[in-house]
Every structure is written in C-alpha cells, then in structure tokens.
Amino acid sequence: MDAEDVKRAAFAMPMASPSFTRGPHRYTNREHLIVTYRTDRAKLEEATPEPLVSDDAIVRFEFMRMESGTGFGRYSGAAQHIPVKFAGQPGAYTHSMFLDAHGPISGGRELWGFPQKLAAPRLSVEHDTLAGTLDYGPARVATATMGYKHHALDETEAMRILQEPGFLLKIIPHVDGTPRICELVRYFRRDIVVRGAWSGPRALELHPHALAPVSDLPVLEIVAGVHLVADFTLDLGEVVFDYLAQ
Q1: Nearby residues of 224 by Cβ (< 8 Å), 6 or more positions away
Q2: pTM above 0.90, yes or no
Q3: Residue 154 has what DSSP assignment?
Q4: Could you read off the pLDDT of 117-172 as tens digits, one per residue?
Q5: Max Cα–Cα distance, the chain, nearest Å
C-alpha cells in the first residue's frame, strides 16, 4: 500500500476495519428523557468553555435509547447538556456523555468530539414510570424518573429542543501528548420527525463519582421534564472556533 492508497483509505481507526461508518447517521424512534434543573452558577460557568456563554444556571440531564441508528445499531446513552449561546445563537453544550457501545463511542469522539465514556446507561418503562439510570462500573451515578405520558406536550416545544444546535469541545492529542486538535464544534439534527412528546411529574438524583463527576453540577431545583420520541439525522459537524489558532 503506497502513500496515496493510505490517504484514500484513511477514514478512521483502525484503517483496515474502522470501528464506525461514515456519517451522517439516521435514527428512528429515538427516545429521550430530559430533566432540566437549576444548579450552582459558579460551577456552571467553570464548566462552560469560552466563547460559549450561559445566561442562566440551567442544566439538562438526558437519558437516551437508540433503537435504530444507521451504522451504530442499538444502544443507550446519558448526557449532561448546558444551554448556551454562541455569537448570540442559542444551543446546548454537551458537558459529559456516557454510552454502552464501542462503535458510537469511538465515532462520536473521533468525528464530532462528543465527550463520551463507556458506562451503563438505561432508559425503560417500569409500569407507570419512565426511568433513566446511569451506572459507572458497579456504582449508581444518576437516577431520573417521570410519570409515563401524563401530559401531551406541544410538538413545537419538542421541535425547538431538537432543532437547536449542539456544541462540543473536540480534543485530539498529538503523539507527544500536546493538543493536535482543540476545536469548538457545532452540529445540527436534520429531517426531524416528532413521534410523540409528553411531560409529567419528574425527579432527578445525582451521586458523586471520581470518574463520572456529573454531581459536580448539583441539582438545586427541578425545572422541567420532557419525554420525546423522534426520528432525525445526526448531521456532521462544523468547526466554529479553533483554540490552537488563537
């Protein structure tokens, strides 16, 4: 294999058999439990990288069940998002994320810069309750519950959440350990179809963990809870700020 062959084949690691497919990736019947809460303002500002700005001390904790993601298959996730603005544009910065499958972890990190780690998130219906849990090893890190489909939610609110851009801090080190890539990435969900949206009574509990420190943004007040089922395409990202070029 000569140098030109290497360049043509170089998409992802490992070159002979990449651990994920080329995007974009289409999801169908993807389910979300999102609990919005108020947290400590100083800790939130410390967690939010410039040039992103947070107007309020609000965090969204999300549990996801991906039943059918092209190239990624079936897996589950949990994430912590911070509502932010970039150049006046509202969006959500993903502060932490946990998945239970290798393919989407490596793809999410290498392509977009999702801050994903391997853990055991779960979203399920337990009789009259929608329940989300996150375990890191044997330790419980987060638990969320919501009354199952108590109140129908206006589809426009669901679309507002799904249509907002996401922001990620993509970091890839050089072989000497210094940063090779350090970029703020923006991405969008496209071709969204809302299958259902509900609200109801909700609760969220976060537990301290050295390697999954979601409780560093503590729950001070529960603000809202949303249950969404939707189809969408997770589009590829774009670099909106290069930290190494500054």
Answers
A1: 35, 36, 199, 202
A2: yes
A3: P
A4: 999 999 999 999 999 999 999 999 999 999 999 999 988 999 999 999 999 999 99
A5: 61
